Amino acid sequence: MRKILVSVLLVFIASATSWAQMTEDRIIQYVLEQQEKGMSQEQIVYNLSRRGVTVQQLQSMREKYEKQQATGVLGNTVPMVDGRPEQRVRERSQTLNLVQDDPSSVQLTERERLLQMYDEAMFMFTDSLLLLKQQLFPPEKEIWGHSIFSNKNLSFEPSMNLPTPQNYRLGPGDEVIIDIWGVSQNTIREVISPDGNIMVEGVGPVYLNGLTIQAADRHIKRELSQIYFGLDKDDSGSNIKLTLGQARSIQVNVLGEVENPGTYMLSSFATVFNALYMAGGVTEIGSMRDVRLYRNNREVAKIDFYDYLQNGILSDDIRLYDNDVVMVLPHSMLVNISGRVRRPMYYEMKDGESISTLLDYAGGLESDAYRNDIRVIRMGEFQREIFTVSKDRQADFLLADGDSLYVDSIKTTFSNMAEIRGAVFRPGQFQIDGEITTVRALIEAAGGLCEDAFPTRALLSRTNPDKTLTNLAIDIQGMVNGNVPDEPLRNDDVLFIPSLFDIGEIKTISIYGEVMFPGVYRYADNTAIEDLILQAGGLKETASIAKVDVVRRKSDKNAFEKSDELSETISFSIDENLSLNDGGFTLMPFDEVYVRRSPGYALNRRVIVEGEVVFPGHYSLSTNNERLSDIVTRAGLFSNQAYPAGARLERKMTDEERIRMRKTVETLSANDSLALAKKLEKLMEATTIDVGINLQEAIDNPGGADDIILRDGDRLIIPPFANTVKINGAVMFSNTTPYVKGKSLAYYIDKAGGFAQKAKKNKAYVVYMNGSVAKGRKASTKLIQPGCEIIVPTKEKREGMSTSEILSLSSTSASLATVVLALINLLK
Question: Structure pTM?
Answer without folding.
Answer: 0.50
